Amino acid sequence: MYDGVIQDLIDELGQLPGIGPKSAQRIAFHLLDADPDDVKRFAAVMVEVKSKVHFCEVCGNVTVDVQCRICTDARRDDSIICVVEESKDIIAIERTREFRGRYHVLGGAISPIAGIGPDQLRIRELLGRLQDGTVTEVIIATDPNLEGEATATYLIRMLSTLGLKVSKLASGLPVGADLEYADELTLGRAFEGRTSIAG
């Protein structure tokens, strides 16, 4: 629709997750209207991120160092590992201030449709971390969708033979939700994970 490089910019922005054609167009025109120094700074940060950021050699979290800040934090509990799909999941858990153990990032979830099996995930590295006997509990915190559930089931089956405590995050109805808007899977999980209050 637009001339050359403008349309190229819109097309590239449209490939970002969560950015549709209209949002891509708005961002492109925002960049065109922005101060050239701001745009150069933005572009420089994007290039720097790609050149400096890599995955922690221990847990697989994103970092600019060899190990991430969580893996180098001596105050963390080494006996518990929380397994997540992506680095962004760590941020969500850290915001709760409820977990003080270590993490392990799988780098995705099992998805036969996308051609992702257990061998494409960082499961071998997880097993390596469990060898020395320091870890006594593994918490599985995969997404509550089909791929996340398949990954959790695979991990539970595999880890249950190692003599570790294996737990999974509870899932169900969010606070403030109306029952009529809950999907069947969420409502079913809420019933499965119900807790006894009395008697």
From TrEMBL:
Signal sequence extent: none
PROSITE patterns given in the database record: RECR, TOPRIM
Keyword entries, A-Z: DNA damage, DNA recombination, DNA repair, Metal-binding, Zinc, Zinc-finger
Span of domain Toprim: 79-174
UniProt cross-references to InterPro entries, sorted A to Z: DNA_Rcmb_RecR, Hlx-hairpin-Hlx_DNA-bd_motif, Rcmb_RecR, Rcmb_RecR_Znf, TOPRIM_dom, TOPRIM_RecR
Residue ranges covered by zinc fingers (C4-type): 56-71
Pfam families on file: RecR_C (PF21175), RecR_HhH (PF21176), RecR_ZnF (PF02132), Toprim_4 (PF13662)
Task performed by this protein: May play a role in DNA repair. It seems to be involved in an RecBC-independent recombinational process of DNA repair. It may act with RecF and RecO.
Protein family according to the UniProt entry: Belongs to the RecR family.
Official protein name in the record: Recombination protein RecR
Gene: recR
